[in-house]
């Protein structure tokens, strides 16, 4: 059943009080009501259709988010009690799962005021502003997930944070603003208006398109660094940012996504030398360019060295830079960027899987999950061409579970046709937890180095072994338990398969993998360096590179 309401009690509301609040809900046309309670006595009116009793609030939220499908019409209602910091009872993973694909309404049912939007930090005075130049929610893309994770890291790290997002020009914008207001007392959401291309750039794109057609290439090449800045870092967005800052008297730090948004930032930073400006790179474009040299991504009228120089110049205006991976940190430092660079991969506890896998046949169950984009297709082609033929030749009993939109691709169909007995196309999976519990090893070759491969980290956090290549291990960094590096021609696969069959206690081994991954990618360590920096009261020390 898909309930119209979830009523969530994480604080053990007294029986009579809860009875009164449930009676209040009968004023609404409730087709279904799921009541998730901490330790309230079992005494309910007839309106209750679904009941979950558990003493561990985090377990309630995580488990039920996996089993109950939510959509825009769903209403999540939290019971509140005076003096209880509710966010300390709600794990960050709950919010990531809740907003993974939909924007359900999130409310609180107070004792006196009835239903109203939930506001966890309503009384906070923001000292940090987080600027994200797109919609952020729902977190359908890794790019959005990273931004939402940064916001959660700041809010849950006791750093009152204002938010500025540029969302869609439709009904979603107000819902996004309301949901972000759960974590921030000041949210500015405006429709995104993209910048206009100059005549010279329009002519260049036309020439680019002509040359690509002559070369037999279909579709457009990906946006370059300067193009993304041209579309997003507009004077209008600078004016909006300036007006938002003027409303925040306690502001000391501005965190913004993307060096390509730096031009909009600089127009404001010149007037506000008292603020610390922190750039979260997410992806470093010149790193992407250096490894993304396949024909379909070719640009004929751009200079990679010029793009790199412009990006480094824009990065140099920030006081602090956040790198999402060790490899990005090394690339920026190696390029001579003289700025403090913090490696902050973020938190991935939203895929931490507590299901033990005991069945022996799952030792040889492999997985690959991904959307149907060009980079994932390149990765799957590596599996089709080299990895899976090698694995199946050594272990005919192995099987491969493909998940995600990539199952609709020609590459996936060819793989399934070539190995019909061992390859299964699952398509979209409702539950990551269920998927990872059926897979022992994740295949994650990386074709293009860029930032951090989220699927690799998610696999480790779920307690899976990970097979990757040289590019993949550069993104993860050294000393990751459970990771095997596979050579260009499949070197290392046979050795891994032999070692895998020698594992005696697989559930215990998976718990080990989870524990090690959690030390690097768990909530407890996420953004600790950033939080330490912005908690300091000292003003930034600038040199001649700053405006």
Walk me through what this model shows.
There is one protein chain. The chain is α/β, with parallel strands linked by helices. It has helices at residues 15-25, 57-67, 92-98, 142-156, 172-180, 199-214, 225-232, 235-246, 262-269, 285-291, 304-315, 326-334, 374-394, 410-418, 432-437, 454-461, 470-476, 493-501, 506-521, 528-535, and strands spanning 5-9, 33-37, 50-53, 75-79, 105-110, 114-117, 128-132, 161-167, 187-191, 253-257, 276-280, 320-323, 341-343, 365-369, 399-403, 423-427, 441-443, 465-468, 483-485. The protein has a 7-stranded parallel sheet, sandwiched between helices. A 6-stranded mixed sheet has the order 3-2-1-4-5-6, covered by helices on one side. Strands 16-15-14-17-18-19 form a 6-stranded parallel sheet, sandwiched between helices. Helix 13 links the parallel strand 14 and strand 15. Helix 10 (285-291) runs antiparallel to helix 11 and helix 13 (374-394) runs parallel beside helix 14 (410-418). The protein is globular, with a radius of gyration of 25 Å.
Q: Total helix count?
A: 20
- Report the sheet with the most strands, covering strand number, pairing sense and barrel closure: 7 strands, parallel
List unreliable stretches of 5+ residues. none
What is the CA–CA distance across the termini? 58 Å
Alpha-beta classification: alpha/beta
Percentage of residues in strands: 15-25%
Q: Name the strands of the widest sheet in spatial order.
A: 9-8-7-10-11-12-13
> What share of the residues lie within helices?
25-40%
Shape: globular
How many β-strand stretches?
A: 19
CA gyration radius, whole angstroms = 25 Å
Average residue pLDDT: 86
């Amino acid at each position: 059943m898909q309930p119209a309401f979830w009523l969530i009690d994480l604080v053990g509301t007294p029986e009579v009080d809860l009875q009164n609040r449930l009676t209040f809900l009968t004023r609404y046309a409730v087709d279904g009501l799921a009541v998730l309670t901490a330790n309230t006595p079992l005494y309910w009116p007839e309106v209750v259709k679904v009941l979950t009793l558990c003493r561990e609030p985090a377990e309630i939220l995580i488990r039920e988010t996996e089993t109950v499908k939510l959509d825009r019409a769903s209403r999540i209602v939290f019971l509140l009690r005076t003096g209880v910091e509710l966010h300390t009872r709600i794990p960050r993973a709950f919010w990531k799962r809740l907003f993974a694909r939909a924007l359900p309404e999130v409310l609180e049912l107070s004792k006196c005021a009835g239903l109203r939007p939930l506001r966890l930090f309503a009384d906070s005075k923001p000292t940090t502003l987080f600027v994200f130049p797109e919609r952020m929610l729902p977190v359908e893309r890794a790019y959005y997930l990273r931004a939402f994770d940064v916001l959660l890291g700041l809010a849950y790290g006791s750093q009152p944070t204002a938010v500025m997002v540029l969302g869609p020009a439709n009904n979603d914008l107000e819902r996004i603003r309301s949901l972000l207001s759960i974590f921030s007392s000041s949210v500015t959401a405006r429709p995104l208006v993209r910048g206009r291309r100059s005549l010279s750039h329009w002519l260049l794109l036309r020439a680019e398109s002509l040359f690509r057609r002559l070369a037999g290439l279909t579709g457009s090449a990906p946006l370059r660094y300067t193009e993304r800045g041209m579309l997003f870092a507009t004077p209008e967005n600078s004016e909006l940012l300036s007006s938002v800052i003027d409303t925040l008297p306690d502001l000391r730090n501005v965190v913004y996504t993307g060096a390509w948004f730096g031009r909009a930032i600089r127009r404001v930073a010149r007037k506000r030398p008292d603020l610390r400006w922190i750039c979260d790179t997410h992806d470093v474009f010149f790193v992407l360019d250096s490894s993304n040299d396949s024909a379909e991504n070719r640009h004929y009228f751009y200079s990679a060295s010029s793009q790199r120089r412009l990006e480094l110049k824009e990065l140099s205006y920030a006081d602090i830079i956040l790198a999402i991976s060790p490899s990005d940190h090394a690339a920026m430092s190696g390029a001579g960027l003289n700025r403090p660079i913090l490696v902050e991969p973020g938190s991935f506890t939203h895929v931490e899987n507590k299901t033990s896998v005991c069945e022996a046949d799952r030792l040889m169950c492999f997985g690959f999950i991904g959307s149907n984009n060009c980079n994932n297709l390149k990765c799957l082609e590596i599996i089709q061409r080299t990895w899976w033929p090698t694995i199946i030749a050594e272990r005919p009993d192995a099987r491969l579970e493909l998940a995600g939109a990539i199952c609709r691709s020609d590459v996936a169909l060819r793989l399934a046709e070539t190995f019909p007995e061992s390859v299964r196309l699952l398509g979209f999976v409702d539950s990551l937890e269920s998927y990872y519990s059926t897979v022992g090893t994740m295949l994650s070759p990386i074709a293009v180095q860029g930032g951090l491969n989220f699927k690799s980290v998610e696999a480790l956090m779920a307690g899976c072994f990970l097979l990757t290549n040289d590019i993949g291990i550069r993104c993860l960094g050294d000393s990751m338990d459970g990771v095997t590096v596979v050579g260009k021609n499949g070197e290392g696969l046979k050795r891994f398969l032999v070692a895998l069959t020698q594992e005696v206690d697989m559930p215990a081994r998976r718990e080990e993998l989870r524990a090690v991954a959690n030390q690097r990618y768990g909530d407890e360590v996420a953004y600790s360096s950033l939080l330490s920096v912005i908690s300091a009261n000292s003003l930034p020390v600038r040199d001649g590179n700053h405006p």
